[in-house]
# Entry
Amino acid sequence: MFDLIIIKPFCREKSKTERLSNILDRSIADYHYDVITTKEEFEHADLTGKKLIFAVSLGESGINLEYYGILKRIRLDQRCLQGCVAGIIIDGNSELYTKSVARDLTFSANLAGCTFVGKPLVEGTRTLKNYDVIAKNICADQLEAYAVSAELLVKSVVQFEMPKKESPNILMLHSSNEKKSNTMTLWEMVKKHLEGCTIEEISLQNGEIYDCIGCPYTTCFHFGERNACFYGGLITEKVYPAVRACDALVMVCPNYNDAVGANIAAFINRLTSIFRTNKFSEKQLFALIVSGYSGGDIVAQQLISSLCMNKTLILPPRFALIETANNPGDILGIDGIEEEAREYAQNMLKQIKK
# Structure
């Protein structure tokens, strides 16, 4: 029985993969593992319920052709990763592309039934300047910080168990017009099936929501120790306590110009204050996203990178319910929407409730 399955898409140029291979070898040395390197091996593997590490070398171009063959299979067979738990290590020879490729992979694999642990991405850019802070904190160089981060990720995946509660607390955040919003209508359809849960709903339209201005670390940490923020207001008084108390965070996000709304973005940015002093890695992230035209996947990926990869919330399988509806009330005309909402609620309960 393998502890891990390593999905490491083949790269013809060995020099491009040397750094990732060294990092990976060190990270998995204590585990029993199998390795998948081609799309054919991936297609024939039964990965149901397995612990996975995706390890992808991108080189300078940000493109690994074998990886795209595997990604195609993931997108076409949306049960191929049912019950899996995963993390991602991506190595590139550029300052670009590592996170965008990781977001895309995470979103696609999640749709195929894969859970991602909080902070599931370890990325090595060309210069490794993204490890300056970690290296300073552990009194090591950037390469060692990269290796240590990969080891911790592998350990997190191997040891992961989904946290569940008898009566979970759900926090729903939105910044929508409750009477006209298709996204809020969709939430109401989902909410009525969430039996046995305590649900708190907070509108970020109430009061002024100031965005983060990037206070110095010491200032942010000082306020964070008091579960507060320099700006105070609704975020400090109502949202922070609700976030700390919740087991699952539901983000209700209309698609505004292929992005989350301004108040939602401000909330995410200002989470940094209490993130420094509170544990988010046992909370689960869910999202309802409605687009007038297209781009729901882009909004979902924003939430993945900001709240899962950055703020360490767990990404449960099929975390987002994504629909297209333009005019007020159009959501109600989508064929089978009530059944989709019910199935989504059932998935939520399966993940969060004992």
In short: The beta strands are 4-7, 33-36, 51-59, 85-92, 115-124, 169-174, 198-203, 248-254, 284-291, 320-324. The chain has 13 helices and ten strands. The two ends are 27 Å apart (CA to CA).
